[in-house]
Known about the structure:
This protein has helices spanning 3-10, 14-17, 21-38, 44-50, 55-82, 85-96, 99-105, 113-119, 125-135, 141-169, 172-190, 205-208, 211-234, 238-244, 250-277, 280-300, 304-314, 320-331, 337-352, 355-365, 369-384. The protein is mainly α. Helix 9 (125-135) crosses helix 18, helix 13 (211-234) packs parallel to helix 19 (337-352) and helix 16 runs antiparallel to helix 18 (320-331).
Amino acid sequence: MSRFKYRNILHFEFLSGALNRDLKLLFVATFIGAFGDGLYFYILPLYIRELGANPVEVGTFFSVMLLAAAFTPLLGGVLADKYNLKKAMIAGWLVWMPVPIIFSLAKNWVQLLPGAVLYGFWIGQPAFSAYIASSAEKEKMTLTFTILSSSWSLGYIFSPALGAYLSEAVGIRWVFYLTFILYGTCTSILFLISSQGVATQTSQLSSTATSFERKKLLVWSAFFAMIMFFVLLVRPLVPQILRDEFHLTDSLVGILGSITFLGSGVLGIYLGRIGDKWKKAGAISVCMILCSVSAIILVLFNNFFALSLASFLMGASYTILSLIGAVISTIAPETSRARWISVPLSASMFAAFLAPYLGGLLYDSSPYNPFLVFIVATALLSVLALTKLFDEEPEEN
C-alpha cells in the first residue's frame, strides 16, 4: 500500500489544507500558550488544596473564575466587532499574563482569587472564534474549529505531566514563572497574523438576524449552558479523586492529565469531521456519549489502564468551546459574528459558575456522587442533541 493511500486511511492529509498562513500562526501561538497553561492548570486544584482549601473551597475558587467568565465574553464580542479581531485576541492574552505571577505569590488559597478573576477574563475568546470563522473554508468550518481547538489540546499533552514533575522537583512557583514566559511568547506570535478589521456595516443582533437564526441562537445557548454546567461540575474534581480515592502521586495525576488532552486533540479532529460530514448536533451527541462512558469507567474500575482510557475519553469534553464557535458561526451575521459567539459563551459560564461549588458539596458527601450525576446528565444530553430542536435548516412550510 502506498504512503499516500495510507495517509488517506488515517485522514491526516486534510489537516494542512484546512489552515491558511494566519490560521497556522494562530495554531502555533495557541499551542505555545496552551503548553504554558497546562503546566499548572490541570494540577491547580491540588495546589489550592495544599494552600489550605477543602473541596468546597476549591469549588468556590473555580466558581469565582467562572463568574468573571460569564460577563467578559460579551465585552470581548463587542470590542472584536467594533475594532479588530487580532487586537482583541492580543488583549485577551495580555490580561492573562499576570495570572501565573499572582498564583506564584499566594500564601493561602484566598490570595489566589485575584488571579482567578483575571483568568476568567475571556475577552479574547469571541475574537478567536470569529477570526477562525472569517478565515476558514465554509465546507471545512467545523473541522477548522476543532483543529484549532486541538492545538490547545496538543499543547496540553505533555505539559500537565511535565508541570507535575517540575512542581515536585523544583517547586510549583518555578512552574508559574515558566508559564509566564510561554504566555508572553504566545502573545508575541499573535502580532504576526494579519489584521481583520471591522466589517463595513455594523449591525445589531436583532436587526440582522432572521427569526429562525434568533431562535437557534437562544436554543443553542441554553443547550451549551446545560452542557457546560455538568462538565464543570466534575472537571475540578477529577485530579482530586485521582489523588484522594485512587492514591495516585501528583506525577501520575499529571500523566493522566496529559492523556486527557491527547484524547481531546485526537477526538476533537474526528468530532470536527462528524460535524462537517453529518451535522454539528451529531458531533455534540457523540461528544456527550464519550464523556458519559469516561465517567462510567472512572466509577467502576480502579487500575491505571482503565483510568488512562477514562482520561482519554474525557478529553472530548474539552472540545465543547470549539463546537460552540462552529455552530454559532454558521448562523451568525458576519458583521456581528463575535457578539453572537459571545452570547452562548457568557450563557454557559453564567449557568455553570455555581457548578464547581455544587460539585464540591457532592464530593464531600461521596467522591463518586458528582460523577454519577454527570453520567446520567451527559447521556440525556446526547439524546437531546439529536432532536428536532437542533435541526440546522428551517422547516419548510
